[in-house]
Amino acid sequence: METVGTAVGALSRPGLRERKKQRTRDALVRAALELIATRGYEGTTVDDIAAAVDVSQRTFFRYFASKEDVAFFVPRLAEAHVVDAVRARPPGEAPLDVLRRAVLDSWDGINEAVEQLVPLELHMRVYRVIESTPALLAAHLRRATELEEELARIIAEREGVDVDADPRPRILVAAFGGVVRVAERRWSAGDDLSVTAMRDLMTTCLDHVGPALAGNWRTD
Fold it and tell me: Which CATH architecture best describes the domain 4-65?
């Protein structure tokens, strides 16, 4: 006969298994990013990552489809926070303000989520590796295009327009994405690789969007 304790244990085991799986996944992410930051992307193999966590290559592929997949796990987490923040902006807010506030207001929440996985300093080091590695940069830009399409559709839905008939959502998000890329490039080329420096650059660049698009640049 099954006792209460046995029943409770049976109910709790799936939760324990899920937590164990999450710990393994998170350990693989941390090991991968540390290796990539230290050895570079091309100098890191799936076998290296698996060995660092003392698991098999087969176990690695249970969690990630490829080395690229694990390299972008943390940026994907950040992107998901931005998408959620855009969806949560109050109705009636201008589309450009929606995007700007979603990025800046979710900044601390993104960093907290990242820190639950890896140190922010490690995340920023890997970000610089992404910027300087052609294969990763190409993947990053491809992912940015996919994110822009998702955001354009959210903006179109918020504004009650057809994203395929009205070009404005895609134009706006493409311009916004370009501003983010300018901030990323300036940060990556600079000497201060801190999170604060990235946020300051992002804020400055976003503040220039309106004047850059609509203002007269001539001062004479």
Answer: Orthogonal Bundle (1.10)
Q: What is residue 164's DSSP assignment?
A: T
Q: Which residue has the higher pLDDT, 213 or 54?
A: 54
SS3 assignment, position 101 = helix
Query: Which of 78, 71, 64, 79 has its CA nearest to residue 33?
Result: 71
Q: So what's the architecture of 72-213 in CATH?
A: Orthogonal Bundle (1.10)
Instruction: Give dist(CA 36, CA 12) in Å, integer.
Output: 36
Name the residue ranges covered by the structural domains of the chain. 4-65, 72-213
Asked whether 71 and 36 are in contact (CB, 8 A), the reply is yes
Interval 43-59: pLDDT, tens: 999 999 999 999 999 99
CA distance 174 to 152: 9
E-state strands within the chain: none
| Token pair recorded at residue 98 | 């929606």
CA atoms within 13 A on the CB side of 217: 4
pLDDT (tens digit per residue) in 98-114: 999 998 888 888 888 88
State whether residue 217 is helix, strand or coil: coil
CA distance 206 to 209: 5
Closest CA to 96 of 152, 144, 146, 141: 152
Residue with tokens 């992404």: 130
pLDDT, tens only, 115-159? 888 988 898 889 889 988 999 999 998 999 999 999 999 999 999
